[in-house]
Amino acid sequence: MRKPGTESRLKRVVALIALLLIAGFAVAGPTGLLAWSENSAALKARKAEVAELTAKRDGLRNRVMLLDPDAADPDLASELVRDQLGVMREDEVVITLEDE
C-alpha cells in the first residue's frame, strides 16, 4: 500500500523531468539556441547560392530566347556554329591560346 502523498510526488517528479527535457532541447537541440548561429550562417550561404543560381537561370533564359527558331539572333547563332562545329570562313585566322 502506498502512502497518501507518494502518487502526487511521483507526478511532480515526472512533470519536472519532462520540463527539464523540454528546456534542454530548447537550448541544445537541433533547432535550439546553441544551433541558432549555425543555422543563420547556413541560411546566408543558401541565400547566396539561390542568388547565384537565379542569375545563371536568367542568363540561360536569355540565351534560349535568343535562340528562338522563329527569330534567332544571327550573332549568337554564328558564334554557336563556330564553337560547336569548328566552322570558319576562308578569310578568318584562328589564334589558339594555351590554357595555363
What's the number of helices?
A: 3
Approximate strand percentage: under 5%
- Class from secondary-structure proportions: mainly alpha
What's the N-to-C terminus distance?
88 Å
- How many β strands by DSSP? 0
- Average pLDDT: 84
Helix content: 55-70%
Largest sheet composition: none
Helix and strand sequence: HHH
Radius of gyration: 33 Å
Shape: rod-shaped
Number of domains as seen in the coordinates: 2
Point out poorly predicted stretches.
none
What does this structure look like?
The protein has 100 residues and is mainly α. It folds into 2 domains: 1-34; 47-89. The chain is 66% helix and 0% strand.
Short structural summary:
This protein is mostly helical. It has helices at residues 6-28, 36-66, 74-85. Helices cover 66% and strands 0% of the residues.
